[in-house]
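Marked as duplicate of an earlier ticket. Keeping the data here for the record.
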Amino acid sequence: MKKIKIHYLGLCLSLFILFGCAGNSSLVNLYVANEPAWVRDGQPIKFEDCDWYPSDNVENLLDKEMVLMGEYEGVQFFTERKDIRPFSAIYTKFDDHQYREFDRRND
């Protein structure tokens, strides 16, 4: 009886890991579907005399943690409320609590 419980627990854990990992790939596809082409193509946002390029970092942030700083190409962009100038990153929102990080480059 004890062996059956251990095998059942192992099976459940394996299925959880398998389907948990498979679910993440569909989230990545959802991110891409909700972002404009210029973001997916790696085009920068022009803000405060700098070019801000999209990164692979996607943050789960609450709306109350963010401050609207402007709009670029029809897309609003934000900074974290706790961040001060010079900002370390800016973000675009593409889903509930999902923000893409943009990093500054002074080319």
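See parent ticket for discussion. DSSP finds two helices and six strands in the chain.
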